Amino acid sequence: MSGNDFSYSRERLRELAQAVLDHARDLDASACETDVSEGIGQSVTVRRGEVETIEYNRDKGIGVTVYLGTRRGHASSLDFSLAAVRATVEAALSIARFTAEDSCAGLPEPELLAKGSMDLDLFHPWNLPVEEAIELARRCEQAAYAVSPLITNSEGASVSAQQSHFVSANSLGFMDGYATSRHYLSVAPIAGKGAAMERDDWYSGHRDPGDLAAPEAIGDYAARRALSRLKARKLKTCQVPVLLEAPLASGLIGSFVYAVSGGSLYRKSSFLVDSLGEQVFPSFVRIDERPHLKKALASSPFDDDGVATRDRSVVDGGVVQGYFLSTYTARKLGMPTTGNAGGSHNLIVEPGDLDFRGLIKEMGTGLLVTELLGHGINYLTGDYSRGAAGYWVEGGEIAYPVHEVTIAGNLKDMFGGVVAVGSDTVVRGSKQVGSVLIERMTVAGN
User: Disulfide engineering: 410 pairs with which of 30, 179, 255, 382, CB 3.0-4.6 Å?
Assistant: First the structure.
């Protein structure tokens, strides 16, 4: 794949968006919004030194939402012809005529829409011939094999280069868009033989391919992680402190985001309903949202509604300062939108003073969790139960690997029982957080 290979210019996307708005207006829609997008990419996977897959993707789409008063209809198409664009608008209008009225439906207030352009440095196309992509994947996997003869197999190494651009517009005069890129390099080595086999993985993902970790570093680290899991044991059921490694801690923060998001709140399907202004975390926990960080994976000048994004404090002193609301969910709750239609933007959990080793010493005796399995979370009650693997810690030192256990508790207790947030911050999607030490959870084993 070479540089900017888009088939459609940004101006053409704008023309298509305007065609949607014009046709909706001609058909007497009271309001309309549209998204026009195109994405292209290339992914290569190498396994045991041989090319396993080469995939190219080229996608485009146009989504149309129209309003007839407070009735809403939505339709989409993959066809950019003028006839198809008009047919999509007409389909959305037809749906709107048969939907129930909803007083919360409609476009945002005009004064909340983003104005002016903002360059967040999100577009770094990767001029990566497929031969070079294959070579990168091979180098990554070979580095894993080179660590030890005990690395006996692999689920493969993959290189992915993706880029896209879009234009969003609505009948209030908003029209804006930009291009983005996302590139990844990953490997999943397997250590051991027969029944005594363990796998692990690691990856690097960035907007700019120049920011990716070296393939040899990724392969080496993933292999050492897999090797360290050999001769894993089971545990007897106990209640002990649990340390979630940083990549898993981002999932814990994701659970908080879900529980205080508009859809969960107005449906009363969250254990954190009416938690605004309430103490949910210990007083040292701070979570900020920073939508305008250059090159960051979740940066955006506006949300999916076109509402301008802004820096804000989500949790301060452990107290919930804000929810995650779109225009619609905010109206359902009788609150202002927070500019989070489509999700959160670069959530940064303030790191503490302890690094990863310091957290292990702080824990003393307990379970370090490096892998979670399953999705056993009940957001109505907060009950949490997931399969886990990791390492048993004694005297502030890792003693041996552990597998086939379950960690269980309640999210409310887990949030309130955070003992420390590490300085070993990693970025996983829209979350930036270090490892998180939780005071006590039930570890179910033998």
Answer: 382
Residue 179 CA to its chain's centroid (Å): 18
Strands (E), 360-424: 366-373, 383-394, 397-410, 418-421
Residues with Cβ within 8 Å of residue 401, at least 6 apart in sequence: 198, 228, 229, 230, 231, 232, 233, 389, 390, 391, 392
Could you please report the per-residue DSSP string of 213-253?
Answer: PPHHHHHHHHHHHHHHTTT-B----EEEEEEE-HHHHHHHH
Q: What are the C-alpha distances in Å from 33 to residues 73, 79, 254, 351?
A: 11, 18, 29, 40
Q: pLDDT tens digits for 93-129? A: 999 999 999 999 999 999 999 998 899 999 999 999 9
- Token pair for residue 298? 């979740």
* 422 touches 354 (CB < 8 A): yes
> Bridge-partner residues for 162, per DSSP?
41, 182
Tell me the pTM: 0.94
Check residue 195 and give its pLDDT: 79
Distance CA 242, CA 240 (A): 6
205: nearest Cα among 160, 154, 156: 160
3-class DSSP state for residue 357? helix
Residues 6+ apart with CB under 8 A from 223: 143, 144, 145, 146, 147, 148, 151, 189, 191
Query: Are 185 and 208 contacting, i.e. CB atoms less than 8 angstroms apart?
Result: no
302 DSSP β-pair partners: 308
Distance of CA 425 to the CA centre of its chain: 16
Rounded to a whole number of angstroms, the distance between the first and last alpha carbons of the chain is 51
Is residue 278 predicted with pLDDT exceeding 60?
Answer: yes
Residues 265, 329: contact at Cβ < 8 Å? yes
320, 277 Cβ separation under 8 angstroms? yes
CA 259 to chain centre: 15
Q: What pLDDT shows up at residue 399? A: 96
Task: Classify residue 382 as left (phi > 0), alpha (psi -120 to 50) or beta.
Answer: left
Kindly calculate the radius of gyration of the chain based on its CA atoms and give it in whole angstroms. 24
- The pair of structure tokens assigned to 146 is 């080179």
pLDDT digits 0-9 by tens, 336-353: 999 999 999 999 999 999
Distance, CA of 150 to CA of 378 (rounded, Å): 40
Helices (H), 229-320: 246-259, 262-266
